[in-house]
């Protein structure tokens, strides 16, 4: 019995300790805890998340742009640096292929005004025209009366001088290929005229041009030469100067 008494006394709590615990419990019972600033904590957390996200996105954009702007030069020496790669130069556009002109296709009787008072039109029989000095007088050159051989390349010419100008026109026929242009060699230089034809490839057409009248227009040996060229630049038909 005497051996257990000291152990019981050792387990017994001192009276002062019990009173202190009761006093603390009573004081804690009367304390009201303050509210936690939850909204402020949430706002700060969102700002921190946005700041970290912006930092990560900015670093990612820099890493994506660097390969586009720089390419490291090959080599292992310490002098190797990065260089800017210029954009590849685009090839210049190919020039459009040139297209040779062809005669203007006109309907039978359709009038073409080459100059005021100088009109031409075609029928199945040949070329019709008027000139400024006699606009009411219709003139005619046949393409079917047998006076021209449409199986042989040839050019005819009619001309009239009036008010300082010479009005030139004629037939062309018999050439191979497609007629394209006409050149008239006058005393004043080369004049480029125009061509008209009826539809259906009749094998003949008419040319016309207007030139300045030279001082020796009516002298002997002053008849112009006329050359009709095809779409390849070759001679379709020619009338030699006289």
How would you describe this structure in keywords?
242 residues, alpha+beta, Immunoglobulin-like, six-stranded mixed β-sheet, four-stranded antiparallel β-sheet, 35% strand, rod-shaped
Description:
By secondary structure, this protein is an alpha+beta fold. Among the domains are: 40-72; 104-239, Immunoglobulin-like (Sandwich), CATH 2.60.40. Helix content is 22%, strand content 35%. The chain has three helices and 16 strands. The strands form four sheets. Strands 3, 8, 9, 10, 13 and 14 form a six-stranded mixed β-sheet that branches. A hairpin with a 2-residue loop joins strand 9 (158-162) and strand 10 (165-173). The longest helix is centred in the first third of the chain and has 32 residues, at 38-69. It is rod-shaped, with a radius of gyration of 54 Å.
Give the helix/strand layout:
Blueprint: H1 5-11, H2 15-29, H3 38-69, E1 70-72, E2 82-84, E3 104-105, E4 112-115, E5 118-123, E6 126-131, E7 134-142, E8 154-155, E9 158-162, E10 165-173, E11 179-186, E12 189-192, E13 194-197, E14 204-212, E15 225-230, E16 235-239
Parallel strand pairs: 3-13
Antiparallel strand pairs: 1-2, 4-5, 5-6, 6-7, 8-10, 9-10, 10-14, 11-12, 11-15, 13-14, 15-16
